[in-house]
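To close the section, here is one more complete example, presented without commentary so you can practise reading it yourself. The ligand is zinc ion.
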Amino acid sequence: MRLFECGSLVPGCDWHTRAENDAEIVRRAVEHMRNTHGETVIRENMIENIKARIANESEAPAH
Ligand SMILES: [Zn+2]
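Output:
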């Protein structure tokens, strides 16, 4: 499972998302940037910043 935490890009934001693949994470993150952070224009470097912060989530017990 892959995990993206918006707080790693936008300090103070606690939104995060999980998905099986990076493309889905990027899709959701872009949607979040638009809806929550008012990023009406998603620049290429924004996509790169999101991708760079996607992490593998360890198989920890659900909480
Ligand atoms: Zn956010």
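Once you have examined the tokens, check your reading against these statements. Residues 2-56 form one domain. Strands lie at 2-5, 16-19, 55-56.
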